[in-house]
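User: Lon proteolytic domain-containing protein, Streptomyces cyaneogriseus subsp. noncyanogenus:
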Amino acid sequence: MLSRLKRPQAVAVCALPVAALLATAAFAPLPFSVAQPGSTANVLGAYKGSEVIRISGAPVRETSGQLRMTTIVATGPDTDVRLGDVLDNWFATDRAVMPRDAVYPSGDDLEEIERHNIEQMEESQTAATRAALGHLGLDASDVDVTLRLADVGGPSAGLLFSLGIIDKLEGDGSGGDLTGGKVIAGTGTIDADGEVGAVGGVPLKTQAARRDGASVFLVPKAECAQAEAELPEGLRLIPVTTLKGAVDALKALASGKGSVPRC
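Assistant: Predicted structure for Lon proteolytic domain-containing protein:
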């Protein structure tokens, strides 16, 4: 036989499992990572004591300006992120709460993830070299390019690697620098055909870029909206979809001639 509870009693009884659920959630690990702006590196110079781009088999130019690749730093895949961490960082402009699977491959252990990131970086370097030499009409068998970026994994530096190779070999094609002497930052994957792809974490990367002196940021066109949402003051976005488009945009920006794309 069931008896009917009065409303205050019913509310109290219903609140018990909700309170238990919230208490459990507060202490249980959640499938998130907390990310923040990471380091940047000028691919035209040195990083941690080693020159990033080394070229032999072709004349190499002296360059001015900078091409800075950007990174984010996220809590490790084995780090417990709890409800309090999520709430503390959710509204912070210099933090992002991201699904862990969006940052790290699902189901892999730490060693597998590190190996995966290294493999992605190596593939990105190969594609970036092929794209840059192809853009310049040079034969990869005649020009040897070595790319080195210690402790950085993943494919998101591909576009900046390609631009760095082009600036060192040809500049703007008229004796000047592709950067126009400015601090240019950016992100984006690249394939051997010069197609630029999205990377994720763009709002945090724009913050890292501005912090390190950049005034221009090259962003994959598909991520314009994300970049605009929290764009640091003084940083100009240039959307790109191809290596050629990025080169043309930088030449137009440096010369003041021609149109420069906007998000």
